[in-house]
Design a protein that fits this description.
Blueprint: H1 15-19, H2 27-40, H3 47-67, H4 96-105, H5 111-124, H6 131-142, H7 147-158, H8 162-175, H9 178-192, H10 198-210, H11 219-231, H12 237-249, H13 259-273, H14 275-279, H15 283-296, H16 300-316, H17 318-324, H18 334-345, H19 358-377, H20 380-411, H21 417-437, H22 439-471, H23 475-484, H24 493-502, H25 504-515
Helix pairs in contact: 2-3, 3-23, 4-5, 5-6, 6-7, 8-9, 8-10, 9-11, 13-18, 15-16, 16-25, 18-25, 19-22, 20-21, 21-22, 22-24, 22-25
């Protein structure tokens, strides 16, 4: 967005204009604009603004899904290698040494040639250390997207022990250009995190980077954001603080596809500072924290599996979710971490379209409101609230009409009739001013909030989760449908909406349900 102050008046009618997106916007542009505003309007400090942001974001996501939407911009790719020189005719009498020499003399090689050279090097050059890995690295430098080379390289470094892997990445710093070094050592460095102490790992990284020659940007940014996520819960705060200072200094060089990962890391940084208070709760909170830690320490494929496993538990055990996150509770930046992690793990072809047609959805949501009203009317607390309301209206009638009438026509009976009417009118105005602007109105609002919160916790929250489970609607979609209802079928609708917007549990439930759909 271009302005410092978001154009809130454009919501909900013009979410695209609110985010400042062009007409042909794609998913990446939408997520960048959304996460930029999320940095300013965090859910723990600005719950209402966050809910409006989320609803606008989901509206545009549904438009992209309905219309197909343009694909995200492709990452820049290296130019294709020159055509490979054909291998000379073989007569079937070549020895491994002669075949190795023929392959090595080719000026332009195919990916398969590097695989053959790597395999033959163990026979021809047994005295030279790690020649298999050397030829794989040469092949990966020439063919960075080749699936065979990538799979062999992954299996190769996994077969090495920690000491051999440390020597390998150290040698690669002298062998490779910075771009190839960061590409080929990303997985080994992540693997070493679980094998050696973090101080030793950090020293190895500093030592290797000090020997690199040439421009390291933007390859180092991609490398660092990935390894910091994997090392986040092992690293000390000082090292992480240095990383964020470095990123802020190099932010203009950050590739667009890493914006969401950086936002996730920033949310993790805030969450880590208050994680102790978050864990002072139910066992479910500890499980969710363990899931976040495990997702950070895993590759994205494994992270999706872990996230879905926990999402299934959240959906299957709604009462535990409600107990772990009471209505109105302050859980700090946890939901922001969970929400941004879900954005990272969302598949591009995810279907967020409403399961019902608008007409059926309107009927269902009205039926749900009637159900909420029936649940509230069955509670004894509703009887006392109604009695208190009748007493309140009786008091208002007495103070607003009878008291001024008695004062003007009985206590001031000696005054002329016109003076009595003037005093009576002044009395009505004074009482009205007291009722509207005085403490009575404030007390009534406080009592209404207390009463509806009790009903929300006891009846409306469980009914909401059950409705989400049966309908597969998102909380944002439910709120949109409720706001479109003009008549007061359920007279406590606005109170219910206010509590629903600020309640983290239904939003967590929706995120979890969307990932297992």
């Amino acid at each position: 967005m271009n302005s410092d102050t978001p154009s809130w008046h454009l919501l909900p009618d013009d979410p695209r204009g609110f985010f400042g997106l062009p007409e042909d916007f794609d998913r990446l542009q939408l997520k960048r604009a959304y996460t930029t505003l999320l940095r300013r309007f965090k859910p723990d400090r600005f719950p209402d603004e966050f809910m409006r942001l989320r609803q606008a974001y989901e509206t545009l996501l549904r438009e992209l899904d309905a219309g197909g939407g343009p694909p995200p911009p492709a990452m820049s790719q290296q130019p294709p290698p020159p055509p490979a020189q054909p291998l000379p005719p073989l007569d079937g009498n070549q020895t491994p040494e002669s075949l190795f020499r023929l392959l090595g003399e080719l000026t332009s090689k195919k990916a398969e040639h590097y695989v053959m050279l790597a395999c033959l090097s163990d026979l021809v050059e047994p005295d030279l250390d790690r020649r298999f890995g050397f030829w794989l690295l040469r092949g990966r430098s020439a063919f960075p997207r080749n699936e065979l080379l990538e799979r062999l390289w992954h299996r190769y470094w996994l077969s090495l022990g920690a000491a051999d892997l440390v020597r390998l990445v150290s040698r690669m710093a002298d062998m490779l250009a910075p771009a190839d070094f960061y590409t080929n050592t990303l997985e080994p460095f992540c693997g070493l995190l679980g094998e050696i102490p973090f101080e030793e790992w950090k020293g190895l990284l500093y030592e290797c980077e000090s020997r690199l020659r040439g421009d390291r940007m933007p390859h180092r940014l991609v490398f660092m954001i990935t390894v910091v996520r994997r090392a986040f819960w092992r690293a000390e705060e000082g090292w992480l603080a240095q990383f964020f200072d470095y990123i802020n200094y190099q932010l203009h060089d950050l590739p667009d596809q890493l914006e969401l990962e950086l936002d996730f890391l920033e949310a993790l940084w805030d969450y880590r500072a208050g994680v102790t208070s978050f864990l002072d709760g139910t066992p479910l909170r500890r499980k969710l924290h363990e899931t976040i830690v495990a997702c950070c320490d895993a590759d994205w494929s494994r992270a999706r599996e872990l996230f879905v496993e926990r999402a299934i538990e959240l959906v299957d055990d709604g009462p535990a979710l409600l107990a772990a996150f009471p209505a109105g509770s302050d859980i700090g930046p946890f939901f922001e971490v969970f929400h941004r992690l879900s954005l990272l793990l969302e598949s591009d072809d995810e279907d967020t379209e409403m399961a019902w047609s608008p007409r059926i959805a309107d009927y269902k949501i009205r039926h749900f409101l009637v159900q909420l009203g029936v649940l509230g009317d069955k509670d004894a607390l509703t009887f006392f609230w109604s009695a208190a309301n009748w007493l309140g209206w009786a008091l208002i009638l007495f103070m607003g009409l009878l008291l001024p009438l008695w004062f003007a026509f009985y206590f001031l009976a000696v005054l002329p009739g016109l003076a009595k009417l003037i005093v009576f009118g002044l009395g009505l105005w004074g009482v009205r001013h007291f009722l509207v602007h005085g403490p009575l109105q404030m007390w009534r609002e406080q009592a209404a909030h207390w009463f509806t919160l009790k009903l929300y916790k006891k009846h409306w929250r469980p009914a909401t989760l059950q409705f989400l489970r049966e309908s597969y609607l998102d909380v944002g979609q439910v709120i949109d449908l409720l706001e479109k209802i003009e008549d007061e079928t359920f007279f406590r609708r606005q109170y219910y909406l206010s509590w629903l917007r600020s309640d983290i549990a239904p939003w967590l439930y929706s995120v979890a349900q969307r990932h297992i759909a």
